[in-house]
Every structure is written in C-alpha cells, then in structure tokens.
Design a protein that fits this description.
13 helices
Length: 363
C-alpha cells in the first residue's frame, strides 16, 4: 500500500494519499515510510510545523538512508518557503514611507524557567540556532536587539509577541519628539508643583504639574572623562582618557504632557528655591543630591524607578550610527563627544515609549 501512497503523491492526488494513509496509520503507525508520507501530506497541506516535527523525528529515529535524505529535503523546502514568505511580509511591511523610519526593537526580560521554551520560538523567528537564541534573550533588564526600518521591526516584534516573548518597538523620531526640560530647581511643592527650568532652546521659564502626572523615574550615572598623564609599561609618559567622576541624572516622565523633567547633580541649583534639605557649610553636592532623591521618593512613593541604564548602555555604545541620530539633551562639559549621553536619552525615551504604549495600547 506504501507504493500506492507514493504513486498518489507523484500524481498529486493528495485526496487518495490521505485516504490510504488513514488506513496505514491504523495498521502500522510506527512505520517510517508511513510517518514520512504523513509529513509530506502535512507539507502539501501547508501545515509546516506539523511536517517539520515529523521530519525531525525521522532524522532522530530511522537509519534508512532514503528516508533520511527525503526528510532533509523536506526540511529544506519548508525553510525555503518560510524564508520566501518572511521576505514578502517584510517587503509589504516596509512599503509605506512611514514604515521606513529608523527604529529599535527591544527585548524585555524573561525568567530562566520561560527561556527554554521561548528560545526555540525565538530561534525559529530569526532563523538562528537555539543555543544562540537562549543567550540572546535577556534575564535582567531590557536588551536592544535590532535597529532598522520600523516596518520590519514591527513585523518581527508582532511575531515575538504572538510567541509570548515580551518586546516592544519604537522609532527614533518618536523619542526625539519628547520635550525635555532641564530642571534648575523646585520653587514650591504641594499637590501642584512648580519648577524653574529651561526648554530645548535654552529659554528660562516655569512649569507647574501635579505629582500624579509623573508615571516613572529614570536614574542613571554618566561618566565624566578627563585626559590624564600616566606611565606606560615602557616607563614613558602617555596621555590617557579615564573616567574621573560620574554625573547623576534623574528623569521625571510625564507621558500625558509628552515631556521629561531632567534633573542632574551637576546643574541643579541647591541654593535656590524650595529648601529640600537644610543648607550648611558641610553640605557637598553628593549630600544635597541624596537629599533631593529622598525628597522625590517621598513625593512619588509608588512610582517605579528605572535604574538599569548602565548594563543597557554597555551593550549599545558601539552603535555609533544609530546613537548619532539621537539628540541627547545632556548638558555636560565634554572635550569629546561620547555615546553615553545619547544612550541615556535613548533609555529614558524607551521607558517613556513603553509607558505610552501601555497607556495607548499600541506600539
């Protein structure tokens, strides 16, 4: 009867093949040829996952070289079909001009228990091996996985979400549209709070907001580099760029106003406005800044603090082209540009984008 099944497949008479296989599956379900033709039937019916499962099982369980060869050929056909479908979908996803904008795809952390199952799905979506996929999926904090045209990233992101792999995507332009105000100092604090601040064109003004509008805080350290003279292994003097200090930043995110209030220990005027901590001659910038953070914690006790900036930044600092498209809104005196500054604004902007996504229900 197997010969009849083979003949039916040659004639592309899949209806007859299905009837014959139904009988054979009752009589000898473990016969490798029966299983192979069942895989072929799934393949021609476009049930590619079922077909792939059977072909892979045959590769593990049979020694028949003819079946092994045909199972491998079947897997290759499925791979080619899926690759072609993926390319068509990506082309369709990037045809609209708005879908060609530069964007980023960010992976959210998964527990180690969920990683094993997610890795195989991730590997299938991106056509990589499962081991690499497992190493790629983050356990702590976000991971910027890919940059490119937003249409393509949305295509992959949608597939990941269907596979229950948490992620989100956004355009660099969306992050650049967020207004950033540099906070000089607070002048009053009640339900409605007022800050003296400068806008993106360095105009001084005030902004009054309600504490309930603050949906997240973003904390980060930015290294400050200095040129130092050191003695090398040959006992010769040489100039090096080293991290001499860190600037502390704290962003207050107000999604309803599409703005960020940015505070820094290097620019906050502790002697002005609201007395947040008693000012004495013993106060250092560090002491004043810590008092300010404690005070903010009291005003915003239930607001999440995002503080995984450094490990996030360390994975993207070499992406100079992408970071070069981001205006950092970081006003530190620097002799040379550094990717740390746009990396912080990107991180804060991604938190902002994620908040907006959760509010609006759309990436």
């Amino acid at each position: 009867m197997i010969e009849q099944v083979a003949t039916a497949f040659e004639r592309k008479d899949y209806h007859t093949a299905a009837k014959l296989l139904k009988q054979l599956l009752k009589e000898s379900p473990d016969n490798p040829w029966v299983q192979f033709y069942l895989g072929r039937l799934h393949e021609v019916s476009k049930k590619f996952q079922d077909a792939e499962k059977i072909y892979r099982q045959l590769l593990r369980s049979t020694t028949n070289t003819k079946i092994l060869t045909q199972a491998r050929q079947g897997l290759q056909r499925i791979k080619d079909i899926e690759q072609e479908a993926r390319q068509r979908a990506i082309i369709e996803a990037t045809t609209e001009p708005s879908n060609t904008e530069l964007g980023v795809l960010v992976l959210e952390p998964l527990s180690n228990e969920l990683k094993a199952q997610a890795a195989s799905k991730f590997a299938q979506i991106f056509q990589i091996d499962t081991y690499t996929a497992r190493l790629t999926l983050p356990s702590r904090g976000w991971k910027l996985y890919r940059t490119g045209q937003i249409g393509e990233l949305k295509f992959y992101g949608t597939q990941l979400q269907k596979a229950e792999i948490p992620c989100f995507w956004t355009t660099i332009a969306t992050i650049q549209q967020i207004q950033v105000y540099q906070v000089n100092y607070f002048v009053e604090s009640a339900t409605n709070t007022t800050v003296i601040c400068t806008n993106q064109t360095n105009q001084l003004g005030s902004l009054t907001f309600n504490w309930s509008e603050v949906k997240a805080r973003v904390a980060g350290l930015l290294p400050i580099f200095e040129q130092v003279v050191d003695v090398n292994v040959n006992r010769k003097l040489e100039r090096k760029t080293q991290t001499q200090d860190y600037a502390q930043f704290c962003d207050l995110l107000l999604p309803s106003r599409r703005c960020i209030l940015r505070l820094s220990d290097k620019s906050y005027e502790f002697q002005q406005g609201l007395e947040i901590a008693p000012q004495t001659s013993q106060n250092t910038i560090r002491i004043n800044w810590n008092h300010l953070l404690e005070w903010l914690e009291q005003q915003l006790p239930h607001v999440k603090v995002w503080s995984d900036f450094t490990p996030f930044a360390e994975t993207i600092l070499d992406q100079t082209e992408m970071l070069g498209n981001i205006q950092s809104h970081i006003h530190l005196f620097r002799r040379d540009k550094t990717n740390w500054d746009p990396a912080f604004h990107l991180y804060s902007g991604l938190v902002f984008s994620n908040l907006t996504h959760n509010i609006d229900g759309d990436n």
